[in-house]
Amino acid sequence: MKILLLRTASNYLLPLLLLFSVFILLRGHYEPGGGFVGGLIASIAFILHSLAHGLENTKKILRRPPFFLIPIGLAVAMLSGLLPLFFGQPFMTGMWMDNPLPIIGLVGTALFFDIGVYIVVIGVTLTILFTISESI
Amino acid sequence: MIIAVLSGFLLAFFLLCLTKPLSSRMSMLLSLLPVGLFAYFVLLLTKIFSGPTLFYSYSWVPSMDIDLQFKVDGLSGLFSLLITGIGALVFLYSSSYMKGHRYINRFYAYLSMFMGSMLGLVLADNLLLLFVFWELTAISSFFLIGFNNTSAASRKSSLVAWGVTAGGGFFLMAGLIFIGSIAGTYSLQEMLNSSEVLKSHPLYGLILFFFFMGAFTKSAQFPFHFWLPGAMKAPTPVSAYLHSATMVKAGIYLIARFTPILGGSVYWNSTLLIVGGITMLYAAYHSIFRIDMKSVLAYSTISALGILVFLLGLGTHEAFVAATVFIVVHALYKGGLFLITGVIDHQTGTRDLTKLRGLRYSMPILAIAGLLAALSSAGIPLTVGFIGKDLIYEATLIGNNGIFLTACALVVNILLACAGYLAGIRPFQGSKSDEIEVAKHPSFLMWSPPLFLGILSIVFGCFPGIMDAVTQRVLLSMQQEGELALKIWHGFNTVLIISLVTIVLGIVLFLLWKPSADKMNVVARLEHLSPESIAKAIARIFTNIAARYTLFMHNNYLRSYLRKIMLFFVCLIGYYLIKNVHLQINLDNLTTIKIYEVVIFLIMVAAIITVIVSPSRLIAIIGTGVVGYCICLIFVFFGAPDLAMTQFTIDTLTTVLFVLVLLRLPSFLNTKDGLARSGDGVLAGFVGLIISVIALQVLNEPTDKTVSMFYADNAYLLAKGKNVVNVILVDFRGYDTFVEITVLTIAAIGVFGMLKIRSSEIE
After folding, report:
1. Residue B493, pLDDT score
2. Helix, strand and coil percent figures for chain A, each rounded to 5
3. Is residue B569 in some structural domain?
4. B 732-751 residues with CB below 8 A of A?
5. CB B280 within 8 A of CB B303
6. Least Cα separation, residue B723 to chain A (angstroms)
7. How many domains does chain B have?
8. Which of B326, B383, B560, B700 has its CA 20 to 30 A from that of B744?
9. Closest to B729 (Cβ–Cβ): which among A34, A43, A44?
10. Mind listing the pLDDT tens digit for each residue in B395-449?
11. Are B86 and B331 in contact (CB under 8 A)?
12. CA distance to partner chain A, nearest, from residue B124 (Å)
């Protein structure tokens, strides 16, 4: 009975929490939030799902082992730092678009950097937790 | 020039990247590198014969005064020729000796890395650069000695050699830094002007000590000689190259190089004389007692190195001439003898002098090479060894203690002559032995290098004038002016008589002496007093103490670790607080307590009590989770939502992790044992008390708000963000964040690696 409740709830909670984590990530530049917290929330979403449905099912949703995310995130963060180099500015200079986009707001290199952090955090957290729970 | 020095490293890198083992023909082609380098250095040498010393400088770390400065003068030129020349022969020889070995790529990679480091070492004109290459030679030597990494003895020998030479390297580094800072420059060339400053400096004695420790360990001087016989575990071409002709002479090179800078004082000369003298006598005596051919050669090499140090210690013009020539002499005959030993070992499978005989029937050409090397080693006229020996006696005869020094040199030379005969002639003598399988004739690449070296010994011996120009340039780099002409015939004088006595007594000793295991055992009886055993005993005591310390500190109980860390913390911080801080608690600025704060506080206390008294581990973990959430709420109350959010998520994940790990832990340990529990309680109480005191004390300190004000003011202006915390993370301190996520990645890889490997091993 208990597990049924959790299972049903987690089905809806997974997308909601992921959405929430993206929200937290995007608002980070103006309000409390950011890539690190966002990444942790997204990891919690997956952990919750794995607790309810078992690790195998969560892995099926992810399709790839979570450590695939780590190099992607690192690359995104690195590229956001490298971008200013093409405009003749030093590594990791913050660059911004002139006008804000609807919903997302002002887009700049720092946002991409934060997205990189977000992805790395999800990758690292899930790798560690999945590895530990698998090897028990 | 920089390409010449670094080519060895480039080749090594390239070889390590190859996936297929080198074929014999390919490895032969590799010797084109040393041959090419040899030609290049010959060219450079002819340039400096007619012109000034050549300098090359490339910028490396200009802010720290480290540049890639290279200098080609007589001394570095001579050594470069030896390194590349002998190197070329060893490369060729190895292509046959190591044929078909599984790790032949690795072997050649180490070998060319060594060649590069050695070239860098002798050519460097910057102290720090010299030191870098000095260490690189030790590293490549370590790899080469331990090349047969499946043999425990060979691994152990490489560790001993590494320990001794790298330990000496530390001393050398200290010495070089002293020299550099006192002279005010790290350039060897500029340092020549600071010689007087260095010699009159109050730290001169200490500098000499450090410097000699480095040079003596590398050049295997008594009492650090014991690593060299051990190093004979290396494949024989390596022994010939590193541990006879080149690397062990690095110490000699260093002493010669610094002679014009540090040398000339009584301390300098007498230290070198005494250490060199003891080494040459001790090792020469030991060499004839050995029955392993390589062992004989190892000890006679140590003895030869002793002679070189001894000559440099004499410090006269004649001694420098003798040392220069003897370096060449020794490289030629000892390199040859080693290569011959390698062939014998390779063809017959043994190096035991008591078993080997009659090999001249199966390997006639090798026997000739052996004869030539042995003759040069003994100093028979018309070999280069004769000239070397003459010069040594000429050098020792001058001065107050001439007779005594000459007597020492005479004894050493007689013993060395005998050792040379033992290695070069004894295996080929006598009737065919039945114990040894009929050895095939070695391939061309195996017998030609030693034969070539033997012929060179004769050529140089008959026409010593070839060496004039080089020798003169070498002396010039040691700041010794003067003409010289090397001759075969010096007239009928004392030196000639002594030389003849040496030859005759050497032959007599050789004819009477039969190496045997019994004789070796006689020497071995004193083994427990040798420097080697003493060093090993010290090493054993050291590991024992380390093991005990580790067992005490690292006993695999998490609670014991925590206890130690907390105890240390309490003692250190508590001592500091009592001793230095005037404790005062200012309650004026505290705000009034709100009702929801009290509620949170009560929840926390209840949770903590639950954690302490709960008999179930799961409940205890959830209790700590509750405490964590309460702290998040406190963050929220006091205006740190970012912190609260992060803490909240982290706490959740930690609890999940805890629960996961829980399954792995042993069943709940019943620590109802009152004494231990109350002890832990007191400790925890102290930690809490100290933290509280620190927290209250911090309030009294005026805080410097410049940094936080800067961030607050500029977050929007410079980084277009309103959330200061996040702007700091992704923009102002973006580098830090980048490093942090990299560290996270490493942690994930670590966890993944350790757990996955472990679980797959269990399966």
Report:
1. 78
2. 75, 5, 25
3. yes
4. 734-735, 737-738, 741-742, 744-745, 747-749, 751
5. yes
6. 5
7. 1
8. B560
9. A34
10. 888 877 778 888 888 888 888 888 888 888 888 887 776 666 656 677 888 888 8
11. yes
12. 36
CB B218 within 8 A of CB B175: no
Q: Is the Cα torsion angle B648, B650, B656, B662 positive or negative in sign?
A: negative
Q: Enter the tokens of residue A21.
A: 């984590």
pLDDT attached to residue B526: 67
Residues A36, A119 contacting (CB under 8 angstroms):
no
Tell me if B88 is assigned to some domain.
Answer: no
Neighbouring CB atoms inside 10 A of B698's CB total 9
Under an 8 A CB cutoff, do A28 and B650 touch? no
Most confident stretch, B109-113, B224-228, B657-661: B109-113
Listed range (B151-155, B324-328, B682-686, B705-709) with the worst mean pLDDT: B705-709
d(C-alpha B395, C-alpha B406), whole Å: 9
The verdict on residue B93 lying in a domain is no
Residues of A in contact with B759 (CB under 8 A): 134-135
Q: Do A40 and B646 touch (CB under 8 A)?
A: yes
CA distance A65 to B64: 46
Q: Find the helix packing angle between B152-183 and B127-145, rounded to 10°.
A: 180
What's the token pair of residue A133? 């729970």
3-state secondary structure of B491: coil
Enumerate the residues of chain B whose CB falls inside 8 A of the CB of residue A118: none
CB contact under 8 A, B747 and A128: yes
| Segment B573-622, tens digit of pLDDT | 989 888 877 777 666 666 778 888 899 999 999 999 998 888 788 888 88
Quick one: pLDDT at residue B160?
Answer: 87
Which B positions 614-653 lie with beta carbon below 8 A of chain A? 641-642, 645-646, 649-650, 652-653
User: Please, what's the largest Cα pairwise distance for chain B?
Assistant: 114
Pick from B46, B54, B49: nearest CA to B72: B54
Distance CA B242, CA B86 (A): 10
What is the pLDDT, as a whole number, of residue B595? 87
In a domain, B60, yes or no: no
Give the type of residue at B226: F
Residue B508, token pair as written in the block: 């007599």
Interface of A with B in 40-99 (CB under 8 A): 40-41, 43-44, 47, 51, 67, 70, 73-74, 77-78, 81, 92, 94, 96
Spatial neighbors of B369 by CB under 8 A, at least 6 apart, are B336, B340, B447, B450, B451, B453, B454
CA pair distance B380, B386, nearest whole angstrom: 5
Q: What is the pLDDT of residue B761?
A: 63
**Rounded Cα gap, residues B160 and B146, in angstroms:** 10
Mean pLDDT of chain B: 84
Tokens of B350: 């043994």
**Which of A119-133, B93-107, B223-237, B720-734 has the highest mean predicted lDDT (pLDDT)?**
A119-133
CATH number at residue B647: 1.20.120
| Predicted confidence band of residue B646 (pLDDT cuts 50, 70, 90) | confident
pLDDT category of residue B122 using cuts at 50, 70 and 90: very high
Total count of domains within chain A: 1
CA distance B352 to B293: 6
Q: Considering all CA atoms of chain A, what is the largest pairwise distance in Å, rounded to the nearest integer?
A: 62
Mean pLDDT of the A33-61 span: 88
User: Which structural domain, as residue segments, surrounds residue A87?
Assistant: 2-134
Q: What percent of chain B has pLDDT over 90?
A: 18
Higher pLDDT, B361 or B205: B205
Range from A18-22, A78-82, B196-200, B223-227 that averages highest in pLDDT: A18-22
Whole-number pLDDT of residue A1: 45
Of A30, A127, A135, the CB nearest to B721: A30
User: Which residues in chain B have their CB less than 8 angstroms from residue A136's CB?
Assistant: 660-661, 663-664
> What residue numbers bound the domain in which B694 lies?
557-707
